[in-house]
Write a structure and sequence with these properties.
It is a single chain. The chain has six helices and ten strands; from the N terminus they run E-E-E-H-E-H-E-H-E-E-E-H-H-E-E-H. The two termini are about 20 Å apart. Helix 1 crosses helix 2 (about 70-80). About 35% of the residues lie in helices and about 25% in strands. The model has no long low-confidence stretch (mean pLDDT about 90). It is α/β, with parallel strands linked by helices and about 260 residues long. The protein has a five-stranded mixed sheet, sandwiched between helices. Strands 8-7-6-9-10 form a five-stranded mixed sheet.
Length: about 260
């Protein structure tokens, strides 16, 4: 039984993998724990509800984009599970993926995990779009990671707009079918949500032309589920893609 952590800037997704069963998944605020003891107290409650004994945990894997909490996860493994916490890093080789970018050490652990899972599940030519605090595009071509793009997430863009304007309301994450806004809410949804989607669609067209390859497009991230049906790009939605990538890292890394 593997215990997995996908640590983002806003949320920490905790996944428990039991063989031949769906992930058990919990979400907590990344800022809600500042020590290994606080984190374990939350885990202990979740384990009790799910009738899990901590002795059943065989491995701990972490994908983190928040370096300040890595020490907490490291101490958690040592103190409460008597085993090392294993962090996803570009130093690891998984499924023989090469990182054909300028600075592999700069690749976020969540992006690496997404690429591991994408190759295992969808093959050698995949573009992963992860909708989180930031939106990331990661390109797997010929079985190797060749780069991607990063842009502000929907909520990040909205917060930036609202914090710098006095009269604009906060709006729900809904993409209008039309493209001419007739009220303020329409205008914001088109300006932030629809333009972002159209930009991603155009970017993928450019990537396809530039690399002379065709790709499966896979979306993930909490916001991704709201986008299904808004574009043909989002027909494949994998809510647990990052957790699956962490699991493959634990099981298949060769160094």
């Amino acid at each position: 039984m593997e215990l997995l952590f996908d640590i983002g800037n806003t949320h920490t997704v905790i996944g428990l993998h039991v063989e031949d069963a769906p992930f058990k998944i919990w979400r907590i605020g990344t800022k809600s724990y500042e020590t290994e003891d606080e984190l374990f107290s939350k885990l202990y409650t979740l384990f009790q509800v799910a009738q899990i004994q901590k002795e059943e945990i065989s491995k701990i894997g972490v994908s983190s984009v928040v370096p300040s909490v890595n020490y907490i996860l490291e101490k958690l493994g040592e103190k409460y599970f008597q085993q090392p916490t294993q962090f996803v890093t570009p130093d690891a080789r998984v499924f023989e993926i090469e990182y054909r970018v300028d600075y592999p050490q700069e690749i976020g652990a969540d992006r690496l995990a997404n690429v591991f899972a994408a190759k295992k599940i969808y093959g050698n030519n995949v573009i992963v779009i992860d909708f989180g605090t930031a939106i990331t595009l990661d390109i797997l071509q010929g079985g190797h990671f060749i780069g991607g793009a990063i842009l502000p997430g929907f909520r990040t863009a909205m917060l930036a707009l609202f914090s710098n304007t006095a009269q604009l309301p906060q709006v729900e994450l809904r993409i209008p079918a039309h493209s001419v806004g007739t009220n303020t809410i329409d205008n914001i949804q088109i300006g932030i949500l629809k333009i972002t989607i159209l930009g991603i669609e155009r970017l993928i067209e450019e990537i396809t032309r530039e690399t002379r390859a065709t790709y499966k497009i896979v979306s993930t991230g909490g916001v991704g589920k709201f986008l299904q049906g808004s574009s043909a790009l989002f027909d494949i939605y994998e809510p647990d893609l990052t957790l699956k990538g962490i699991l493959y890292f634990l099981r298949h890394r060769t160094r």
